[in-house]
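Why does this matter for the project? Reviewers at the last site visit asked to see concrete outputs rather than summary tables. In response, this paragraph embeds two records directly. Each consists of the residue sequence and, immediately after it, the corresponding structure tokens. Nothing has been edited or filtered.
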Amino acid sequence: MVFFNQKRDTGKYYIVDGQQRLNTIKKFYKNELKLNGKFSGDDNHNKIFNGKNPISKEQRNLFLKYELREYMFEDYSDEEVRRVFCLLVFRLKNYYQSKGEYNRFKYISLFTV
């Protein structure tokens, strides 16, 4: 998921949330990032997108076809963006706590103002 805020007066889009995610995807695609077997399985350890020691053609196709969800805000103020994310984080915290995953969002107080 990536959240953007469009400022119509300038025509620019700003990444509100998801910049690290987008940078990681870009780095992997440009072979600047290797997979870690801990998260991708031993067979994919140290593999890159293509070049030396690449992932399989099927994996590349899946990667390229993956649909990244994006949400667009239009002309939200900084305060409105903060309120939306406080609500999202609060709901996620409650969801994971209801599943017994209490430590998943223990840093939550950093975001709620």
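We now turn to the second protein, recorded in exactly the same manner.
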Amino acid sequence: MRLPPYVWCQQLMERDMEEELNVIMDKTPGLDHLGVAGTGDREELRRSLPGIERAMAWLNENPEADGSSYELKHKAEEALDYYLPNGALIAAAMLAGRRCVEISPENPNVHIHRAN
């Protein structure tokens, strides 16, 4: 179910996004600003929290969005007019409850499934 933007924004403000990001990163050791292959900078991903929040809002507004994280990152960047690291979109999808499936161990991208 798609939430109206004002409801989504209110829910987002009530969440401790920094703590939730830390939980996601603990559960996904390879997650960093480049994706999930563990080849990037985890601290850079933590500094991307404003972009993660924007990406979560974009994913909520686009529940049918489905595809590789790299492809969806570019769609979100275009819509938001805001640069997003690949890992930021992956983290946003995880935090938004989207199913993310690793493509292969050396591939930094994941397949992000549409919202349920």
